[in-house]
Every structure is written in structure tokens, then in C-alpha cells.
Amino acid sequence: MREEILLNIDSPQQLEKLYWTNKPSFKVAFNALYPQLENNPLAEGWYQRLNYRYEEPFWGNAQERVVVLVASLLAALVAQLPAMLSLDKEFFYLRNAGFIVFPLLIAYFGWKNKISAKTGVWLAVLILLATAFINLLPQRSSSNTLLLSCIHLPLWLWSLLGFTFDGGKWRGGVNWLGFLRYNGELAVVIALLLLSGGLMTGLTLGLFELSGWHIETFYFNYVVVCGLAAVPIVATFLTQVQPALVNKVSPVIANLFSPVALVMLIVYLAATVFSGKDPYHDREFLLLYNALLIGVMALIFFSVSGTTPVNRNSTQILILFLLSLVTIVVNGIALSAVLFRIAEWGITPNRAAVLGANVLMLSHLLYVGVRLFGAITRKTDLSLVGTSMAFFLPVYSGWSALVTFVFPLLFGFK
To answer: Where are the beta strands (DSSP E) in 47-194?
Structure first.
């Protein structure tokens, strides 16, 4: 190995090949030769690279840990308000689930990014108005607009979080692509924390059961509820202080499942033909179609968000392009089903909401598909794929606000 290093000391590519052939032997041989190569700039760079000492994981400064702890406790406190104030749990959680976590995450990124006081006041006012609006909506068991508002309100709060994530500045544009990456990382860390929490819950309940203590009700009402409220905040903290541990995981998972999703969608479309069911007359089947669309779109977005010109993989981009094409077909079927149901039975709040969502998703998929095709043929830069992916997020924000705040008034709270 020493002779090969000496022969190729002025060839970066050959040294790189030697290094990846046998890393341990390369390091030992290079360090032994280094005294003879001290005046070589390339050798100096390799020496620093091979002998860099990895520091202990950085867990943020003391102030940041205090902020996260306080935010977690506040989230747990808000989650316990129904028990503390004897409120109806269904009423509270249906309308206020988004307010348990999103305002605190918005405050966290606002503090971290040092947003201006004016922007902070505007965000606080918007959140307070949204809180008052959703809780003052009439309580009707058959109110579709109430349910739609409750579903779309967290999406609108999510868009406010995206605005704050990048520093709360409209000038220069919001870094929506970075926000999408954060969401992919957050999903992975939340899944790991929930898995760990689930194992701990099973062990705890099992040990107390062996001791004759039945703590299931207390544990779920207090420990589990508070833990679930704090998980997104703790997970966000981990994504910010340990980016090297998590920023590659979500794209890897998405890339692994993209081929599986492509095959599954093709088989699903073929099976639909022979199943005897269709989204035109089966409402639940149509809802399944739309849930499938959202999941596949998220898969495409997280895959693209982790793809850069450096790690570009033509096969993976081709798979994403084919996946987007099949998803466009599924979206087209869902959209035609919605239009059919509107033509047959008239417009309702649910159909209007689904129609708007399908039109937005179809437009978005077409835009992303065109950019993916350009990346495959190398007619456009790969970075434009990520840009096209993030381009529609403000549009989704506007649509969620429309459904949340305008639909109840437009349809008379029906």
C-alpha cells in the first residue's frame, strides 16, 4: 500500500480509489509515510482528513435545552386542559389538536431565528384569531364544514410554521424546500421516539401488572397524553442539534420505498378494474384514493428533497418520474369521480373541498413531472425539481385557509 500511495501521491482520483479499497490499511500506510510528504499540499489535506478527531455529539446550548423543556411542558399542559377544566374531550381535541404543538414550534423557530417583534406579534394575533374562530363555530353533529375546518386548520398552522422556519421574512422567498426536508427528518425522529415510547410503555405496564398495580388508566391519561404532546418538540430539537444523524434518513427511506410504491400503484390500478368497486359510486373508495395520493406525493417529495446534483441517481429519478405519472393517472381518476358526484348529486362542502384539493394536487404533480422529465433528459437542472416541489406550498396554505375560515360561512355552517 505504501508504494502505491507514493506512486499516486499527486493524483487525487487514484488516492481516492486506494482509500475506498481498504480504508484501515490506507490510513496506517499514509500516516507512516506522512513525515516524508509534509511539504505536499495534497498530502497535508489527506492527513487532516484521516486524522480528524470526531467530537462528542453536540446537544445544543443550555438556553436551547431550557427552551425545549419549557415548550414540552407547555404542550403537555395544553393537552391536559380537558382534564384540568372538565372540558368535553371530543370538543377540545377535535378543534384544538393543532394548537397543542404548532404555536410552540412556531415560537421555538421564531426564537431560534430571532424573528422581528413585529412579525412575532402578527403570528400571535393570527393564531389567537384562529383559536377563537374554530372554538366559536356552532356545535352540530352533522356539520361537514366544522369537520373540514378542523382538518384543514392544522395544515394552515403548518404553513405558518414553514414561514417561521426560515426566519419569518417574505423578502427573498421562504425556504420551503428546506422546510420539506425538516418535515422528512421530523417524521423519522418522531417514529423512532414513538417506537421507543411504545416499548417503554409496554415494559412499564407489564412490570406494574406483575406487582399487582393496575395503572393503565392513569398512565394513558397523563403520561401518554403528555408524552405525545411533547414528542414533536423534542423531535424538532433533535433534528436541529443532530443534523448529521437524521438528515439522510428520510430520503433513504423514501428512495427505498419509491420502487415498491410504483409497483403497488400499478398492481392496485389493475386490481381496481376487476374488484367491482369504483370511486364514482363508492365514497369510501374515493377517500382511499385521495389518502393514497397524499402518501405517494409525500414519498415523491421526500425523495426529491434529498436528491442533489452530487448524489444524482438516474435510475432513481426515472422511478420518481414513473411514479409521478402513475400518480397523475390515479389523481385524474379521483378528480373525474369528484366531478361525476357533483354532476349527479350537486355540490356539498365535502365535494368542494375534495375537488379543490384534487385540482391542486394534479397541477402540482404535472409540474413536478415536467421537471423530472427535464432532469432525466438533462434539459433542465435537477435543482429545478426541488424548486417545483416547493413552489405549490404557499398555494396549499391559501387553500387550507380558505376551507378553514371561509367554507363554514360560505355554506352556512352545514
So the answer is: none
The backbone torsions φ and ψ at residue 312, rounded to the nearest 5 degrees and listed phi first, read -60, 130
Instruction: With CA atoms as reference, report the closest residue to 254 among 198, 195, 194, 313.
Output: 313
State residue 247 phi and psi, 5-degree precision: -75, -10
88, three cell numbers:
368535553
End-to-end CA distance of the chain: 78
DSSP state of 211: T
Task: Determine contact, residues 243/178, Cβ cutoff 8 Å.
Answer: no
- The grid coordinates listed for 29 are 500506510
**Is residue 157 within 8 Å of residue 130, measured between CB atoms?**
yes
Model pLDDT for residues 386-409, shown as the tens digit of each residue: 777 777 888 999 999 999 999 999
Cα separation, 25 vs 101, in Å, equals: 50
Over residues 53-64, the pLDDT tens digits come to 655 556 778 898
Q: How far apart are CA 283 and CA 144, in angstroms?
A: 15
Q: 290-321: string of b/e by CB count within 10 Å (b at 16+)?
A: bebbeebbebbbbbbbbbeeeeeeeebbebbb
Q: Region of 60 please: left (phi>0), alpha (psi -120 to 50) or beta.
A: left
Q: What's the grid cell of residue 26?
A: 490506507
C-alpha cell read off for 304 = 426529491
How far apart CA 1 and CA 313 sit, in angstroms, is 32
